[in-house]
């Protein structure tokens, strides 16, 4: 019975959702005196592992791996999660292309918790074995490497690969056949486009630059966004007010960090309805995104405390929790 | 002709048991998947999720009950086959249909509701009583079908 193939997975996720951090616990973390106390609090909640010890970065990495391990364990089909693994996969591609071009090798530049880990990606690019890459990634890798070898322009190479990542996410969303995955992919691409528009407006980039960097998506018009970005920050906010991303307009006027926070909150908002689903892949996706948001929030608090930020300054960057 | 009557009567018993039993097996299976998911992460909830998992199993028992009554009625149980006319055989078959069809569909629906209710127990074990009520509501319609099948089979003069 295909409509019940996620029953076991969703029930297991429901049991795991109990241990997700609530907004109240995040407030407790904020009230900690220093980063060590924050780390201790999350370790007491079961974060980290035997190998991670008291190293904050190792604890956070361990949690990311745990979240993916659960999904790999319960998901009947991992392909629907491509939308989540593509950012890391394309990051690895970007890092590998640049390292092969520069003739150096730095394992710290890569993610290992994705379908093609750093070492393998480096070898693929070094040997120009592009056929081993999934989908259109091979063509993108070849073009990006050739571009970098001919022009030496790292930014152009970044734009090409980032754009390919957005196209791949959008395509994976459409191909998944799951509405929630398609919605998530569309929101991801739309938010990335909005961020590109905002940054391009600030740095005075032209329409061609933005057209090359932005991907097409259903929920916003790329051309209208580009036109708004060319007219100024206020025009971007005004354009967003007429879309389903109206909340972003207000945060955009407030501050860049408020806008970043709104972007993550918008994702969580998209996924909150999945708390009431029992037979679809949605709760699995929501759990993964919730875990990523949780880990990002703890990282923000840790970094804020380490650098002596005030509680208010950290709070402005705190993301909304899923539970 | 009388041989065909007994065949219809036996078919009625088979329909009651087969359909409702199949529905219960699917329903308990669906709920069982959800129960396994919860117990994988939290074995302490075993007893609560087991009770909810068993709820879609009742339709199979109702079908069994009607099957027994029908078999007794037509004399398959207790020796001596009754001499049934085709008309009486078809009446018995029709009498068995409510629990068969409603049993099949309601057990599947109840299994899905039970899986959702197990999700409630996973997150809020203190709400177990309320979680039980949602799949239990589906039971109402299986009981109504049982009642009609029971009255109909009992009322047919052999």
UniProtKB/TrEMBL annotation, chain B:
For this UniProt record, give its keywords in alphabetical order, as a comma-separated list: Ion transport, Membrane, Transmembrane, Transmembrane helix, Transport
Regions crossing the membrane: 61-82, 89-111, 131-153
Q: Does the keyword DNA repair apply?
A: no
Any one GO MF annotation of this record: proton transmembrane transporter activity
| Superkingdom of the organism of origin | Bacteria
One GO cellular component this record assigns the protein to is: proton-transporting two-sector ATPase complex, proton-transporting domain
Instruction: Name the CDD domains for this protein.
Output: ATP-synt_Vo_Ao_c_NTPK_rpt1, ATP-synt_Vo_Ao_c_NTPK_rpt2
In the UniProt record, does the keyword Membrane occur?
yes
Taking every annotated instance into account, which residue ranges of this chain make up the domain V-ATPase proteolipid subunit C-like?
11-69, 93-151
By its UniProt entry, which PANTHER family does this protein fall under?
V-TYPE PROTON ATPASE PROTEOLIPID SUBUNIT
Record-stated family = Belongs to the V-ATPase proteolipid subunit family.
The identity of this protein, by name, is: V-type ATP synthase subunit K
Annotated organism of origin? Candidatus Mediterraneibacter quadrami
